[in-house]
Amino acid sequence: MNVIQIGANRGYDDLTELIKEKIINKLILVEPFEEHNKSLEACYSSVPNLVIENIIIHDEINKSESLIFYHANDATVPPEGMGKFELASLNKFHSLGIRQEYRKEGILKRRLKSMTINQLFEKYQLLEIDILFIDTEGYDCKIIKSINFEKYKIKNLFYENLHCDIEELQAYLESKNYLVTRKVLTNQWMDNAKRFS
Question: Are 159 and 172 in contact (CB under 8 A)?
Fold first, then answer.
């Protein structure tokens, strides 16, 4: 089973549960911040073919090989335990829109390596992906629409349903031979698109 997660954060999430009893041929975790690598390695210590890519996935082939990524300053992280990278995004104002306490001066930026999702698939020579799990704080729809579905066969696609036009994305995925199930998994902010041909 080939599994890719875009926006892995620290692990210990819905994907962890989805693949717990599965035999994994390759698990690629894309997490821009290397601060989470130790947690990801611990979470998936039983997976022999684990790869962590500290990069940003974007949607345009002609973009730079590095991009600015925004995240909260430690001083503005709310007390309930959400980490400063929890709402990190390519969009500077994304986390401000969700968390008012992330004042403008509380947003930090980093330049990080980047590539498209198709470039990631090519790098690992993956034509078939069993599970693609995307949680990219506002870029899920753009990334999904940039996938070359003619070349890459993705059996199950899980994506965050909070920050884009879900009806439009569902119609798009249905045109690519997917059946979409809304509001799945623990918090119901993920949708699942299952390939039917």
Answer: no
Q: Can you name the residues that pair with 184 across neighbouring β-strands?
A: 190
Q: What is the pLDDT of residues 141-193, one digit of tens each?
A: 999 999 999 999 999 999 998 878 889 999 999 999 999 999 999 888 899 99
- CATH assignment at residue 23: 3.40.50.150
Which of the listed ranges 7-16, 69-78, 93-102 does the model predict with the highest average pLDDT? 7-16
Residue 48 and residue 72 in one domain: no
The domain boundary, picked from 112, 131, 146, lies at 112
pTM, full prediction: 0.88
DSSP secondary structure letters along 98-130: H-TTS-GGGEEEEEEEEEEHHHHHHHTT-SEEE
Q: Which domain holds residue 99?
A: 66-112
Contact 98, 87 (CB under 8 A): yes
> Are residues 88 and 39 located together in one domain of the fold?
no
Token representation of residue 107: 């947003």
Q: Which residues are registered as beta bridge partners of 114?
A: 56
Which residues lie closer than 8 Å to 187 by C-beta, 6 or more apart? none
Look at residues 158, 97, 162 and name the one whose alpha carbon lies nearest to residue 132: 158
